């Protein structure tokens, strides 16, 4: 997989405005989910590495993406240590997302010039992350902090780029609230990638939901 510099990855994520995130242990299902996201217009997807042998699923997704989905960036979330970050970068991850701020992860990602997005919850954590070279801050859980927190941060630090995850929905009112507060993009899980009670996915519905969400984001940004 061709390496893409972290600033270019950050810009691609910012331009689209939304990063879907999901985990599924079934490789074929995971491929169909990523394809549905791609067809919806997304060019960056976060695979949350929360299951046993998740790296094996991700490896197959990278191969599939390289062959079938030109321009798609696949990243990995729920990374909690430098060893896991290194493993997924070796497989081909274009970005690393963490639930907390960890300097050891920052170092291994910076060494490879790979985008890393740490979960932060205070202005001090955000400042430290940016000192360590962070391009985009993951505000997590977004529902706890809210859009007013983002707006307050952007006052003294207008250069800070923030991606709230958790507490973000596809409704115009919700998206408008976040983007008017100053976020550069949003992360969304089950509101974009949803299944029924039998854990069955409607891939066309996922594609349409993502298309509509991107359209709404473009509208509220304009």
Helix and strand element order:
HEHEHEHEHEHEHEHEH
Which regions contain 5 or more consecutive residues with pLDDT less than 50?
Answer: none
Spatial separation of the terminal alpha carbons: 34 Å
Look at the structure and give the mean pLDDT: 96
Widest beta sheet: strand line-up:
3-2-1-8
Largest sheet: 4 strands, parallel
Helicity level, as a percent range? Answer: 40-55%
| Estimated share of beta-strand residues | 15-25%
Structural class, by secondary structure, is: alpha/beta
Cα gyration radius (Å):
16 Å
Number of strands: 8
What is the helix tally? Answer: 9
Q: What is the 3D form?
A: globular
Q: What is the topological layout?
A:
Blueprint: H1 6-16, E1 18-22, H2 27-39, E2 44-48, H3 54-68, E3 73-77, H4 82-91, E4 95-98, H5 103-111, E5 115-120, H6 123-131, E6 137-139, H7 142-154, E7 162-164, H8 172-181, E8 186-188, H9 203-221
Parallel strand pairs: 1-2, 1-8, 2-3, 4-5, 5-6, 6-7
Helix pairs in contact: 2-3, 2-9, 4-5, 7-8, 8-9
Q: Could you walk me through the main structural features you see in this protein, from its secondary elements to its overall organization?
A:
Helix 2 packs across helix 3, helix 7 runs parallel beside helix 8 and helix 8 crosses helix 9. The strands form two sheets. A four-stranded parallel beta sheet has the order 3-2-1-8, sandwiched between helices. It has a four-stranded parallel beta sheet with strand order 4-5-6-7. The protein is an alpha/beta fold. The radius of gyration is 16 Å and the shape is globular.
């Amino acid at each position: 997989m061709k390496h893409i510099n972290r600033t270019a990855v950050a810009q691609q994520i910012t331009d689209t405005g939304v990063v879907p995130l999901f985990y599924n242990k079934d490789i074929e299902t995971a491929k169909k989910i990523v394809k549905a996201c791609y067809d919806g217009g997304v060019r960056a997807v976060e695979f949350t590495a929360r299951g046993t042998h998740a790296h094996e699923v991700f490896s197959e997704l990278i191969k599939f993406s390289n062959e079938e989905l030109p321009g798609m960036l696949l990243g990995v979330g729920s990374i909690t240590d430098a060893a896991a970050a290194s493993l997924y970068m070796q497989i081909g991850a274009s970005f690393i997302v963490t639930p907390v701020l960890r300097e050891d992860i920052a170092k291994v990602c910076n060494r490879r010039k790979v985008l890393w997005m740490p979960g932060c919850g205070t202005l001090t954590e955000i400042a430290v992350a940016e000192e360590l070279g962070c391009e985009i801050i993951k505000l997590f859980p977004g529902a706890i902090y809210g859009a007013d927190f983002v707006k307050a941060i952007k006052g003294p630090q207008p250069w800070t780029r923030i991606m709230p995850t958790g507490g973000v929905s596809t409704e115009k009112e919700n998206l408008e609230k976040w983007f008017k507060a100053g976020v550069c993009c949003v992360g969304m899980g089950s509101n974009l990638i949803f299944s029924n009670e039998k854990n069955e996915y409607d891939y066309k519905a996922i594609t349409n939901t993502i298309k509509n969400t991107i359209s709404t984001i473009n509208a509220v940004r304009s």
